[in-house]
Amino acid sequence: MAGNKMAGKPNKSSQGETVIRIEAMHKWFGNFHALKNIDLTVKSGEKIVICGPSGSGKSTLIRCINRLEEHQKGVINVHGTDLTSDLKDIETIRSEVGMVFQSFNLFPHLTILENCVLAPIWVRKMPRKEAEEIAMQYLERVRIPEQALKYPGQLSGGQQQRVAIARALCMRPRIMLFDEPTSALDPEMIKEVLETMISLAEDGMTMIVVTHEMGFARKVANRVIFMDAGEIVEENDPETFFNKPKSKRTKLFLSQIL
Ligand code: ADP
Ligand code: MG
User: Fold this and answer.
1) Nearest to 73, CA basis, from 133, 125, 33, 101
2) What confidence tens digit (pLDDT) does each residue in 97-109 have?
3) Which of 39, 38, 31, 27 is nearest to 71 (CA)?
4) Which of 20, 55, 70, 187 is most buried as measured by Cβ atoms within 10 A of its Cβ?
5) Which alpha helices (H) appear in 41-156, and where do they start and end?
6) What's the N-to-C CA distance of the chain in angstroms?
7) How far apart are alpha carbons 143 and 166 in whole angstroms?
8) Where are the beta strands (DSSP E) in 16-126?
9) CB-based contacts of 155-160 (< 8 A; 24+ apart in sequence)
C-alpha cells in the first residue's frame, strides 16, 4: 500500500512501458457493431485525446478499458492482464484505472470526504484514518479541501468535477480515463477542470481523454485519435492532426468544431 508521502503524486509506472494494448478489438450491442477492429497501444505517461462525432463509439471504447462494457472479439490488455469473461479480479483492474464521467457521478447522500474514502476503505481495505488523510491531500491538490464536509449538491459543477477527479486519484490509479469531463459544465467552470487535468498530465499521469476541447488537446496530447462510426479513422500528433488532417471525415469534423 502506498504511504502518505506519495499521496500527492500519481502512481507512475516506468516511462515507456506499455500499459494498455488493444488489438483487433470489436464490440457489438446486439446486432449493432459499435467498435470495429480497434488497435491502440498506450505507453506509460502518454496522454491520448479521443474526439469524434456523437455516437462514434468514444465512450464505449474507454468503458471497455475498465470493463464497464465487455468486448466480444480481439484483445484488451491492461497492465499485463487480458480482459476476458473469466477475469476474476475486475476490482484490481478498476482500481488501477480511474474514470471521470461527464456527469460527475458523485454519491449525492455522502459528503465530499465520504465520496473520496469509500473505495479506498471498501476496495483497497485501507484504514479510515489513512484514507481520510489521503483524501484530504487530493482535495487540496484539486484546490477544494474546504468543501470536504459538504454534500455534492452544495458545490458548483466545476467543483463537483474536481471532487470526482480527486476521488478517482484516491485509489492511486495508474491510468486515468476521462469521458467528456467538461461538456456538462458552464464555460466559466471548464477552465478550472482543464487546469486540474493539465496539472495531472504534467505530473506524468497516463491519460485517455475523450474531449472536444481542442486547446487542451494541443497543449497536452501526445496523440489525437479521431473516431467515426465505431472506427479509429485517424491518429496523429496534435500538430499534424489539426494542421494536416488526412481523411475527409476528420476534415469535416474539424471544420464543425474549430
Ligand atoms: P460516443 O461516446 O462517441 O457518443 P457511444 O460510445 O456512447 O458514442 O455510443 C456508440 C454507439 O453505440 C451509439 O450508436 C450508441 O447508441 C450505441 N450504444 C452505446 N451504448 C449502448 C447500449 N448500452 N446498448 C445499445 N447501444 C449502445
Ligand atoms: Mg460519449
Assistant:
1) 33
2) 999 999 999 999 9
3) 27
4) 20
5) 58-65, 90-96, 112-122, 128-141
6) 44
7) 10
8) 18-29, 32-43, 47-51, 73-78, 81-82, 97-100
9) 155/112, 156/189, 157/104, 157/184, 157/185, 157/186, 157/189, 158/185, 158/186, 158/188, 158/189, 158/190, 158/192, 158/193, 160/104, 160/106
34 lines ligand 1 (CB under 6 A): yes
The protein residue with its alpha carbon nearest to ligand 1, atom 25, reads: 29
Which of 27, 28, 29 has most ligand 1 atoms within 8 Å of its beta carbon, as the pocket-test mutant? Answer: 29
**Vertex 165, ends 232 and 176: CA angle to 5°?**
35
Q: Which ligand is nearest to the CA of 51?
A: 1
CB 66 within 8 A of CB 183: no
**DSSP code, position 6:** G
pTM higher than 0.90 for the full model? yes
Q: Which ligand is nearest to the CA of 55?
A: 1
pLDDT per residue as tens digits for the range 179-226: 999 999 999 999 999 999 999 999 999 999 999 999 999 999 999 999
